[in-house]
C-alpha cells in the first residue's frame, strides 16, 4: 500500500507506511504554499495526480516515478475551495470553484501536450547537457464555461459522477445552505432547508464545511448525502424524502475538520475533530449510545481516506504524523509514520498491505528460500533406546524393507539396523 | 536548579555552633562492624509487636551506616562511581526527535514561518501584559496580591513591555487594538485562588497561541540574596529542546526578547526543558580570576511552565485548529515526553 501525502509548506511525499520508508519526494517549499487538494487526475486510473496549492497553482505529477508532468497558471485562480478533474477521450476537464461562488470549467487537449513534450526534449538535447529540465507550463487562456453559484461565501465544493458523462456539483458555505447543481444545464436540482428552531425558538447557525455522498466507492448513491458543520454537527439528508435533514447529531465541543463515508454500511460516516478525536457514527443505530472512537492523535485531523479494500483507514493530522488504522479492531494505529511537515491531504493506492516488494527484498527472499531447503532434506535422527520411538523404528524398518525389495543397494546399512533392533527386541521380551 | 550564592539557608536560620552546646567538634563517629549483636537478632521470631518494631528500627539505622562505610571504602580504593540512571535515559524512542536528516527541511520551513518576518527585521519586540477574564462573574476580576507582584517582576525582566488592566474587552478585540499599534506579543496571566495559575501567549499578527499551566511561581521576596534587575537587553539560553514541538516553543520564547543582547549588562535568562516542564530563571553573572570561574546571583521570578495546547492562528477556541492538544490518553507511560 502506498500513500501520497501533501504537506503544509509544499512538499509531496510518496511513502510506504509498513516499511517506514519514503519512496519519492516532489515539489518545493514556499511561502503560503500549502497543498490544499490532492486527487487522481483520472478517477478510473491511478497513474497521475492533481495537486492544488493555496497560491492558486495546479500541477500534475506521476506518483510512480516522481516526475512532474506540467503545471497550469492563471492569474485569477485564488482561494480555490474545490477541485475535480477527469479525462474525456483526449481532453481533460478541470472544475474549480472560487471563494465568492464562481465555478469555472477548463478544457484542454492532451495530444497537444504530448507533441509539446517531444519538441521540448529535442530542443533540450541540442542545448547543454547540464541544463535542468523544466516541466511544461501551460497558460489557461479562458474557461470554457463559467457560472456563478449565487452564494456569497463558499467553503466546500464536491462533484459526483453519475455515469453517462453526467456530473452533479454540491456547494455550501457560511450563512448559505447546501445546493446541488447539474453541471451541463447549470441549474439548481436540490436546495436544502435548515433544521427547525431549537427549544429557545432561536434559529440554529449555518456554516457547512464538508459534504460526502454515501455508499461504497463503487456504488455511490447520489440520493443520500451527509454534511458537517463548523458547530460540531453532522446532518444526514435524503433527496427523495424532504429538503430538511432527516437526523442531526452534535458530538463533542470542537469544530469538525474532515468527513468521509464509511465502506461498511450505507448510513455510516467517519468524522474528525480539530483536537484530534475521530469518530464513527451510524445514523440508524439510535439505541447505541457509545461512539466508536479512534485514539492516539494529538493534532487536528485534516484528512481521512479509506483503502479501496475497505479495511484500513488512513489519517493525516497537523502533529506531523500519518497513521493507518483498522476499520474495526483495536482502536490504536497499526502503523504511524513521522513526516517533518504538517500533513494536509493524502491519497491511497489500491495495492494490498504486503504486496510491494522492491528489488532488494526479492534478492533476500531468494537466498532465504535456498537456505531453508537444505536442512529439510536430512531425516531427523531418532533416539533408538527410547521406548516411545520403538513403533516408529519398526515402521521405518518396514519402509526400508519395501525399498530394498525394489532396490538392491545399501546392504551395509541394513545389517547395522538389524543388529540394533534385535538387541532391543530381546530386552522387551525379558521385561514382559 | 542553579545554585545561589552561599548556602541555601538564610542567615537567621543557621545551625548553632557545636561548642556552644558543650560538644567536641572533632569527635569521630563510631565504626559499625558487620558482626554487631543487634544485626544477628532475627526480627521475625519476636512476637511482641512493640519490641519487634524497636529492633527493626535500630537494625535499619545500622544497615544504613554500614552501606555508607562500604561506599567510602570503595572510593578510597579507587573504584569509580557509576553514572546515575535517570528517567531521561529510559525515555521512549520518539520519531519526532530532530535528527540530522530532518535539519534541511526544518530550516527551509522556518524561512516561511510565522516568526520569519520578526527574525528578518530589526525591530525590537513590543509586549503587552494583561490579566484574565472571569467567565463565572462575567467581568474582569481585580488581580490578587501575588499576581500583581509577579506581573511587576515580569515587566522588569522582559524589555519593552507594558501592563494594561483588562477592563471589559474580549480577547479578540484586544488583538485588533494591538495590531493597529504594532505590538508583537501578548501575555495573559490567569489566576486561581488569588495566585497565578495559567498563561496564554499570542504572537501577532498571525502567529500561534500557546496556553500554559504555571506550577510554581516564586517572586524575589522568597529568593535569598537576590539582586536587582537592570535595563540592558538580556542574553537567552535555551536548554534541552529535542523534538520538533520543542524547537517551535523555543522559537516562540525567543521572539519575546530582543535579538541583539547587550553583554555589558551581564544579564541572563535561561529556559531549561526537562520531562515536559519548562524552567524559567533569571540571573546576573560576574566573571572572576581572568575568566576562569563565574559567580551568579539570582534576580526576578522563578516560574515553571507546562504546555497545554498549541493553536494555529490567533486566539479562537470556537473555530481554531490545534497543532498539539494534550489529553490524558496520550500519556501512555511515564517515559514518554513530547518536548
TrEMBL record, chain A:
This is Ribosome biogenesis protein NSA1. GO terms for biological process: ribosomal large subunit biogenesis. It comes from the Eukaryota. SUPFAM superfamilies: WD40 repeat-like. PANTHER family: NOP SEVEN ASSOCIATED PROTEIN 1, WD REPEAT-CONTAINING PROTEIN 74. Transmembrane segments: none annotated. Keywords: WD repeat. Residues 354-432 are annotated as: Disordered. WD repeats lie at residues 294-335. GO terms for cellular component: nucleolus; preribosome, large subunit precursor. It comes from Acrasis kona. Residues 354-367, 404-432 have a biased composition (Acidic residues).
TrEMBL record, chain B:
Pfam families: Brix (PF04427). Residues 1-94 are annotated as: Disordered. Residues 1-10 have a biased composition (Polar residues). GO terms for biological process: maturation of 5.8S rRNA; maturation of LSU-rRNA. One of its GO terms (cellular component) is preribosome, large subunit precursor. This is Brix domain-containing protein. Residues 133-316 form the Brix domain. Residues 34-48 have a biased composition (Basic and acidic residues). One of its GO terms (molecular function) is rRNA primary transcript binding. It comes from Acrasis kona. Residues 64-75 have a biased composition (Basic residues).
